Amino acid sequence: MLGERSSVNGKNQSLFKDRPIKILLAKPGIDGHDRGIFVLSKAFRDAGMEVIYPGLLPKPEDVVEIAVNEDVDVIALSLLNGAHLTVFKKVVDIMKKRGIKDIAVVGGGTIPDEDKPKLEKMGITGNYGPGTPLSVIIEHVKKRAEEARKLKMA
Amino acid sequence: MSILREFYHNATDNVLNRRLINDIMPTKTKSFWQKKLEEIERSKSGTNADYDSWKKRTLDPWNEKTHFSPAEYTNSSGFDLKEIYTSKDIPNDYEKKRLGMPGEYPFTRGIYPNMYRGKRWTMRMFSGFGTPEDTNHRLRYLIKHGETGLSIAFDMPTLYGYDCTNERAEGEVGKCGVNVSSLKDMEVIFKGIDLSKVSTSMTINAPAAVLTAMYAVVAQKKNIPIEMLAGTVQADILKEYIAQKEWIYPPEAHIRLIRDMMVFCTNNMPKWNYISISGYHIREAGASALQELAFTLADGFFYVDLGLQAGLEIKRFAPRLSFFFNSSINFFEEIAKLRAARRIWAEVLKEKYGVTDKRSLGLKFHTQTSGYTLTWQQPLNNIVRTTIEGMAAVLGGTQSLHTNSYDEAWALPSEDAVKVALRTQQIISEESGIPDVIDPLGGSYYLEWLTDKMVEETYRYFEQIDRLGGILEAVKKGYIQKEIAATSYKRQIRLEQGKETMVGANKYVDEDEKPISILRISRKAEKAQVARLKSVKSKRNELHVQKTLLDLENAMRTENENTFPYIMKAVEAYATLEEISNVGRKVFGEWKEPIIV
Questions:
Q1: Are A131 and B375 a contacting pair at CB < 8 A?
Q2: What is the pTM of this model?
Q3: Where along chain A do its domains lie?
Q4: All structural domains of chain B
Q5: Nearest to B172 among A29, A32, A39 (CB)
Q6: What pLDDT is recorded for position B10?
Q7: Which residues of chain A neighbour B205 with C-beta distances below 8 Å?
């Protein structure tokens, strides 16, 4: 089954093969703590990825829309205001509704351990907190991007 | 000029940018800052023969013999540090011209003649979460345990001017602070608290005027004259664009509303400090100590200009501006920063603005220990970090202090953790002997060199900012934000490389971390707030509400009208925070930040 966007986009598979990992960083809630996301933007770029950061205060539907338009491999969500369970969920719900399966979603911020399984269950992986080495995050993103890429090429 | 700025804005390498500005834009006349820099340069003693000969005679042979390979010693500000400092590292006229005595110009040693002997710093613990009832309970708990000033944190919807019922507020109500959607919530927060006896600090910026109006109306309803109200609102909108990023309108609109509040409070609320110029968030966003100092003071002078433009007399409003600094983990760097802040403020106000009034020249500040330095790993270590940072704040001469709780890297602090944090201050105050003598580290060669260096480098930043067209322009172009992001990234890389240490996080790591018990905010708060707002709306006089909002809109559209009394009227009619903010959204529009990364 092709998702809604795959059928309209008509893909050139060879483009996907050689293209660097494309990642959208987003803070989908009303939260201005952007120190971490700036650090990650630079780190992902230094790791050879193509990074898109749309600035603060995008709505969950904006995040999905940008991800689709930009054809990213990964959406990285960050919140440090405690609203991750509600707001991250909105993003994946919209993706589900739109039938988007070939974009991986990872999360991060101040996320208590007990919330992590709940997020994993929604398909949001990583969920790293402050102090996580950049290399760990980058490796995880690479792994998830590879999975997404396989789905894109399928 | 504009082409250069465009180029500057688009370039990514900050170092390159700075060089560019220096090369292409030679200034014709010497600026105030250039003169200050030259003055500092002239006062330097040049070589330090004592150090040089000691190094040659004793240090180098020792290092050679012990096969010592020198590590890199710098601080967050990027200053290279020598092994030792001596009197030769300090200018000859230092004590007389740059140090002074406590309570005297340039106030480097403290703004009061007797400092903590006369009055200890106010132990002001930031609190606020969940429902107004929860916060009311926490405030009373703190008052009972000896806290002497209240400090309120608001949740994200409140900070952005949204009601709890807004679609975007879902899941965020009461999470990072208390939710205030209407006057009713403020009435509950301060229930049973005598507003004529406490001083209240409210960390609110974009909607600062609305919350100040609410506080004033709560007092009026309790028959307390607003002249008696003591406290502070943060209302530092420049640092919102720089660091905290909680804005509603474009900068100019917020600046206008702040101006109105300044004028109203200067005339009607003499004990209300209407702007707390904040470096805290700038630092937490990744800035170095130097950047925190320079950008915060640049903001401060911007507000001085704003008051002057509004026709206020400087000695009537400068004493009402207070500052809010971060105290991070590099002990001496923080103390030097705080001492330098007082000196710069006094020097610039006196020499550039011609101020002679002592109360205006003395820079007062609140300090909070650094949240960024706390680790979620081995959380009890955070008590030690906070102690070091709290001591630095006191040695830096702070007027009030918030010490962070050890569990704050995980969540909002629990009651037990808050108590330890408050006790930390009480131990510094009453057991350590630190406050017994004024500025006890004054005269330390290292500290005085560092203080002087902080001042010098701050003037260099001021020069830079002026060349960009002033702080507002520099912020709108994203220059300041880029400087901070660059520093923050550099520090992160140093941590990754093990060049800097965070105990328990990148060194001395425990294999299995045990979770600690943390405060969780349930969705109950959200439900309760939504229900209350509905009830408020059903009981109010709708026609009257609409009229007050329309009057406010007209006032906002008239540049010379003071909006503050109109905001009070709307608040009194139980117009909600979002309804009031929406009037501004309609008149001024919203703001989209420049591209930073």
A1: yes
A2: 0.90
A3: 21-153
A4: 109-435+497-597 (3.20.20.240)
A5: A29
A6: 37
A7: none
